[in-house]
Design goal:
Blueprint: H1 6-29, H2 37-45, H3 51-85, H4 97-112, H5 117-140, H6 148-172, H7 174-184, H8 193-220, H9 224-229, H10 234-256, H11 262-274, H12 278-300, H13 311-329
Helix pairs in contact: 1-3, 1-12, 2-3, 3-8, 3-10, 3-11, 3-12, 4-5, 4-6, 4-7, 5-6, 5-8, 5-10, 6-7, 8-10, 8-12, 11-12, 11-13, 12-13
Transmembrane segments: 12-32, 64-84, 90-112, 119-139, 151-172, 193-213, 239-269, 281-303, 309-327
Keywords: Cell membrane, Membrane, Transmembrane, Transmembrane helix, Transport
GO molecular function: transmembrane transporter activity
Length: 334
């Protein structure tokens, strides 16, 4: 744990906020079309209708805001998932959220010829929510109720089922494959502020609710028996955390597609910085997640310029070494 006192953590939080704002500004400035910091400033203070100003306002600004928002949401969802499942590798993928969202979009494209990115957003959100609710219901059945092992197994089963259905539909419909392949790889390219605005209220509600629930997550992380002994209604807390996960991960996947590794890696980095207190881990994870996705998105523009790779591929390249380290080290899921 790097930051041990509340004062240090507050300072670190402010520095992280400044760093994320700087990275968001860098995302607006750098890309295939050459622009400068001065040009970006003028685009918002003295817009003149040039191609560069249009790109800055209508393409890069939404992209930067969406990357920061999605990264923060996935990281915070990852914190809650790892605490709920006691699984250090838990993520939206293990809850079946990514697979459910992807399947819903592929069904819409294959069977109903949906081609609007705005429609993708709501369809993906619905699919993600259905998948997460299914996992929760299946994981809650039986005498013992909801347990970390049952939740993890239910998530793996739902993810495998939806992934199989998705692959089957794409094999049968090559046109659908071409249409949704970039979205399925995870990307913030081409998204508009309207896409973010449509789900931002849900993401904001998830952020606020996660912070409100953070003290109870501290108690829950001590173990089921200890939490009950301290008077915590563990079933209600788990239900609340599950709903927050649906809002955060479902909304993030709906906007940007299934972006991996953010929800796995960032919570561990946040714990290494501030310890296991969820009152600090959750906001730090949000900021670090936003920063990581912004860095990945900027890097994705330059790897094979003038082409771009999906940011989901970039996060996989960045996150895989950390994933292997976490798996080998065997961090606990608190």
């Amino acid at each position: 744990m790097l930051l041990k006192t509340s004062g240090q953590r507050w300072v670190g939080l402010v520095i992280s906020m400044v760093a994320m704002i700087f990275l968001a500004c860098a995302s607006i400035v750098y890309g295939y079309t050459e622009t400068s910091w001065k040009m970006a400033y003028q685009a918002f203070t003295d817009f003149n209708g040039t191609n560069e100003h249009i790109i800055i306002e209508s393409v890069r600004l939404p992209r930067a805001l969406i990357a920061a928002t999605v990264g923060a949401s996935l990281a915070m969802a990852g914190v809650l998932m790892q605490t709920l499942t006691k699984n250090p590798l838990a993520s939206p993928g293990i809850f079946g959220v990514n697979a459910g969202a992807g399947f819903a979009v592929v069904v819409a494209v294959s069977l109903f010829s949906v081609g609007s990115l705005q429609a993708y957003t709501w369809i993906a959100f619905l699919g993600a929510a259905v998948a997460a609710i299914s996992v929760y219901v299946i994981g809650s059945t039986g005498r013992e109720g909801l347990t970390p092992m049952k939740l993890t197994l239910a998530g793996a089963a739902i993810a495998a089922m939806f992934s199989s259905f998705t692959q089957g539909l794409l094999v049968l419909n090559e046109a659908a494959l071409e249409q949704v392949l970039f979205w399925l790889a995870g990307s913030v390219q081409g998204r508009k502020l309207e896409n973010l605005a449509s789900v931002f209220p849900y993401l904001l509600a998830g952020w606020v609710a996660a912070m409100i629930l953070s003290p109870k997550m501290n108690v829950l992380s001590m173990g089921e028996d200890v939490a009950k002994g301290l008077g915590l209604n563990t079933g209600l807390v788990k239900l609340g955390a599950g709903i927050i996960v649906i809002f955060l991960s479902g909304g993030a996947v709906a906007i940007a597609g299934p972006i991996g590794f953010i929800g796995i890696v960032v919570p561990h980095v946040a714990r290494a910085v501030v310890g296991i207190d969820h009152r600090w881990v959750i906001p730090y994870a949000g900021l670090l997640g936003g920063m990581l996705l912004l860095v990945a998105d900027i890097a994705a523009r330059y790897i094979i310029m003038p082409q771009e790779i999906p940011v989901g591929v970039m996060t996989a390249l960045i996150g895989t070494p950390f994933f292997i380290y976490i798996a080998r080290k065997g961090f606990n899921g608190r």
